[in-house]
Amino acid sequence: MVYTLEVPNTYGYVVLGAGVGSVICNIVLGGPVMKARKQLDVPLPNLYATPGVHKNADEFNRIQRSHQNYMEMLDSYIAMTLLGGLQHPIACAVGTVFYYIGAILYQKGYIDKSLDVDLARYKKGGALKWIGFFTSMYSTCALAYTMITAK
């Protein structure tokens, strides 16, 4: 049996979010890292600052780690939103907005030195990214179920 899939007109929003949105968010999250490299004297190619070598290692590493977290999950997120968006394009497009705003707020919390590092990433709204993540995951599972059970 062949399953046919029609790409909805609103899928363009998913493509914009996954393609252009991911690059814009990456640039926004990379800005504080590059600024901190100069201010805290952590030159490239060092990904992280070394405690005992770099004076402000913890401060820099919190900034770098917040950006790295985004990069670690991005490929899975984009794959899920592109797939799930075939069946639920508006949900995935809106979820993408939540994901990127959440990633930026996650960084703001993680950078805040007045907060405990374990909770900092979620204190300023970083949990919003999980709304977008699970929206895309649900949409992808729904698409898979529809394809598997199609008659």
Automatic annotation (TrEMBL):
Keywords on record: Membrane, Transmembrane, Transmembrane helix
A GO biological process held by the record: leukotriene metabolic process
Membrane-protein topology: Multi-pass membrane protein
Subcellular location: Membrane
One cellular component (GO) term of this entry: nuclear envelope
Residue ranges crossing the lipid bilayer per the database entry: 12-29, 77-107, 127-148
Gene Ontology MF terms in the entry: glutathione peroxidase activity; glutathione transferase activity
Primary localization: membrane
Domain of life per record: Eukaryota
Protein name (database record): Uncharacterized protein
